[in-house]
Amino acid sequence: MARLALAARRRGPGEFAAMRLATARCYGEHFLARAPSYLPAVMGGATVMGFDPDWL
Amino acid sequence: MPARRRRDSGAAPGRSVDPVVKAWCTDLGVEIASMGVQVHGGMGYIEETGAAQYLRDARIAPIYEGTNGIQANDLVGRKLGRDQGEAARALFGEMRVTLAELGGKPEWETMHRGLAAGLDALEHATAYLVATDPALAAAGSTPYLALFGTVAGAG
C-alpha cells in the first residue's frame, strides 16, 4: 500500500497520487493499527492447546 | 527489491507468502463485503441492493482452495519451517526499506508509526514461532497469518 503510494508520488503530483496517499493513510489508521494486537494471540498457543478434547 | 537482486540473494520471499495472499485477501474480502452490508443498513441486509449477495459470495473464499486455517498451518509449518524463516526475514528487509522511505514525512506519520510497530510485532512473532514447539506454533498460526497479511499489505 505504502510502496504503491510512494511510487505514485514519485511520478508527480495529481489526483492519482492523492488518491493513493488517501487510501494508504486510511489503511494505516483503520487496518494497520490492529497489527500489534495479534501478537498475544500468536504467542498464546498454550491456551488453545489447554482444552481437553473431551470438554467439547 | 529488483528480481535479479532477489534471485542473487538466495531467498524467495514470494513463494513463502502464497498462503498469506490467499488467506488474508479472502478474509479481508469478507470484512469489506460485510461492511458493505452494514453501510446500507436494513437495505443492505435484504436482497434488493445486492450487498448481501456479495457477502455470501465472499464468504466461500476463505473456505475453498485450502481453508484459511490450512493456509495458516502451511505458512507456519512448512514455509517458515523449511528455512527457519529466512525468506520471511528477507521480505521484512524489503519492508524496512519502505519504512525508511516513509520516515520524516508529515503526511506519512501515521503509516510510518503503524508499519514500524507492526513490523516489530511480526519479526518478534516470527522469531518466536521458528523457535517454539511445532504444536504451539500451529495453534498461533491463524493470528500470525493475519498479522503477516496486515503488515505486508501496508509495506
- Write down the oligomeric state: heterodimer
- Number of helices in the DSSP assignment of chain B: 10
Radius of gyration of chain A: 20 Å
Mind summarizing the main beta sheet of chain A? Answer: none
**Helix fraction of chain B by DSSP (H/I, runs of at least 4):** over 70%
What is the arithmetic mean of pLDDT of chain A? Answer: 90
Discrete helix count of chain A: 4
Distance between the termini of chain A: 42 Å
Structural class of chain B: mainly alpha
Beta percentage of chain A is under 5%
The global form of chain A is rod-shaped
Uncertain residue ranges of chain A: none
* Overall number of strands of chain A: 0
The largest chain-to-chain contact, stated as pair and per-chain residue counts, equals:
A-B, 26 and 34 residues
Structural class of the secondary structure composition of chain A?
mainly alpha
Helical fraction of chain A: 55-70%
Molecular shape of chain B: flat
Radius of gyration of chain B: 18 Å
* Number of extended strands of chain B: 0
Distance between the termini of chain B: 12 Å
Q: In this structure, how is the largest beta sheet of chain B organized?
A: none
Please provide a brief summary of the model.
Helices cover about 60% and strands about 0% of the residues of chain A. Chain A has about 55 residues and is mainly α. Helices cover about 80% and strands about 0% of the residues of chain B.
How would you describe the overall organization of this protein?
The complex is a heterodimer of chains A (56) and B (155). Chain A is an all-alpha fold and 56 residues long. Chain A has helices at residues 2-10, 15-30, 39-42, 45-49. In chain A, α1 runs antiparallel to α2 (15-30). The radius of gyration of chain A is 20 Å and the shape is rod-shaped. The relative contact order of chain A is 0.11. Chain B has 155 residues and is an all-alpha fold. In chain B, 79% of the residues lie in helices and 0% in strands. Chain B contains ten helices and no strands. Chain B has helices at 3-9, 13-16, 18-39, 42-45, 51-60, 68-83, 86-102, 109-131, 134-139, 141-154. In chain B, α6 (68-83) crosses α10 (141-154) and α7 packs antiparallel against α8. The radius of gyration of chain B is 18 Å and the shape is flat. Residues 6-10 of chain B have low confidence and may be disordered. Chains A and B meet through α1, α2, α3 and α4 of A and α7, α8, α9 and α10 of B.
